[in-house]
């Protein structure tokens, strides 16, 4: 059995971040992102462009970061800031990243302090784009984003919503909290500064399901389960942090959408099945972290079921729902596709948790099965998780108690090892 241990920063170390800010109206939102970084103990150097300073002044950035701020390569020339800032960074994040900034970064232009910093950085680089929909969808921007991703940069897909003026659509800066989560995930992996493994899922398309399905008995009651969707959302966020294109099929989850993720919302097992099968057609990996209801009522009442005066209960006939994991595993929609399932077990007189997990792995035909011991309600809704990852090839990976993000990274490590 292999045991996974999470890497942690050295005691007393402060990750050194560069927050690049380019000239878009969303620059004011970067103030919240900066606050999250500083309050969580990061050492942040803000490098705005000249255009960004027309939206938020240097004094604001200096007050929030506790450091002097300049957009000029000629400031403190003797310290060679255009080289030193990028060389010493553990991570560079540009938020917002305008179409102009993305174009300069893709073509290696260096006409100000931020673009010089991007050229000298040998650490993970994250871009959080913000622009009008037409600019994001323009062929030039598409090509520039593709170039940056091929080089190992993480370019977060922008959110959809209200833009400037009366416009709305795709191009909105992702929520600062979500950008913060992605950046901290990259830093938490502790990758070598000269090794671009932080984007090891770049160019890969993955599908993740999350939450628990509902099968309605009447307009107000349903059969369901306790799945919160936290583990599935952690899988989606960590996949984005590693450069993947992510589709998240969310069943009855009340969590904010992860940045850079296409979210498909469903309620029932049938809807979950249709959405997963559709998305899986172009995916390199499918991770079924959702908890589908095993059964559904043969028929649902159009009106609320009433209590009987004599105290009797209605008889509800159930039928079995489709086995989504088994279908996806046996009918691979793409050559080399890796399929991962989850098993929430308690153990009983038929076997231990691991014995039941191994039986399920063989029965479903997936490549990996993440086995959770949920005795006493463990795991559901909790921020932490522990599991054993079983492989169809006989691998047994023990992931000790830690954050659900740590387990997600362990799962992606195993998925990546099995990708062609």
UniProtKB/TrEMBL annotation:
Transferase found in the keyword field: no
Region described as Phosphopantothenoylcysteine decarboxylase: 1-205
Entry binding sites for CTP: 294, 304, 322-325, 342, 360, 364
Record-annotated Flavoprotein domain positions: 16-179
Family assignment from sequence similarity: In the C-terminal section; belongs to the PPC synthetase family. In the N-terminal section; belongs to the HFCD (homo-oligomeric flavin containing Cys decarboxylase) superfamily.
Function: Catalyzes two sequential steps in the biosynthesis of coenzyme A. In the first step cysteine is conjugated to 4'-phosphopantothenate to form 4-phosphopantothenoylcysteine. In the second step the latter compound is decarboxylated to form 4'-phosphopantotheine.
Name of this protein: Coenzyme A biosynthesis bifunctional protein CoaBC
Source organism of this protein record: Nocardioides agariphilus
Lineage: Bacteria, Bacillati, Actinomycetota, Actinomycetes, Propionibacteriales
Gene: coaBC
């Amino acid at each position: 059995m292999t045991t996974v241990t999470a890497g942690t920063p050295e005691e007393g170390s402060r990750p050194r971040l560069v927050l690049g800010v380019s000239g878009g109206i969303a620059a004011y939102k970067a103030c919240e992102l900066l606050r999250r970084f500083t309050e969580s103990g990061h050492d942040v150097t803000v490098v705005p462009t000249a255009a960004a300073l027309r939206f938020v002044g240097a004094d604001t950035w200096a007050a929030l970061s506790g450091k002097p701020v300049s957009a000029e390569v000629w400031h403190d020339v003797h310290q060679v800031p255009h080289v030193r800032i990028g060389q010493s960074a553990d991570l560079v994040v540009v938020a917002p990243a305008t179409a102009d900034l993305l174009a300069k970064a893709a073509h290696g232009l260096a006409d100000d302090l931020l673009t010089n910093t991007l050229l000298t950085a040998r650490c993970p680089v994250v871009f959080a784009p913000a622009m009008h929909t037409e600019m994001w969808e323009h062929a030039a921007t598409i090509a520039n984003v593709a170039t940056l991703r091929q080089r190992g940069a993480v370019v977060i897909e922008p959110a959809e919503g209200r833009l400037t003026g009366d416009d709305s659509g795709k191009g909105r800066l992702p929520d600062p909290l979500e950008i913060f989560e992605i950046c901290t995930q990259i830093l938490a992996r502790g990758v070598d500064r000269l090794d671009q493994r932080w984007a090891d899922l770049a160019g890969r398309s993955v599908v993740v399901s999350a939450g628990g399905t509902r099968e309605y008995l009447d307009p107000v009651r349903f059969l369901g389960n306790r799945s919160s969707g936290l583990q599935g959302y952690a899988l989606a966020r960590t996949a984005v942090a590693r450069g993947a294109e992510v589709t998240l099929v969310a069943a009855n989850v009340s969590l904010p959408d992860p940045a850079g993720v296409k979210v498909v919302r469903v309620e029932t097992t049938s809807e979950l099945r249709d959405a997963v099968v559709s998305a899986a057609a172009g995916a390199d990996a499918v991770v079924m972290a959702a908890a589908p209801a095993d059964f559904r009522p043969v028929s649902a009442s159009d009106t609320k079921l009433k209590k009987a005066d004599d105290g009797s209960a209605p008889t509800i006939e159930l039928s079995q729902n489709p086995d989504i994991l088994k279908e996806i595993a046996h009918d691979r929609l793409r050559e080399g596709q890796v399929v991962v399932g989850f098993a929430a077990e308690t153990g009983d007189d038929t076997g231990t948790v691991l014995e039941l997990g191994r039986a399920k792995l063989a029965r479903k035909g997936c490549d990996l099965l993440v086995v959770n011991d949920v005795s006493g309600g463990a795991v559901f809704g909790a921020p932490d998780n522990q599991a054993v990852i079983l492989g169809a090839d006989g691998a047994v990976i023990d992931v000790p108690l830690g954050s659900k993000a740590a387990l997600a990274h362990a799962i992606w490590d195993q998925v990546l090892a099995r990708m062609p």
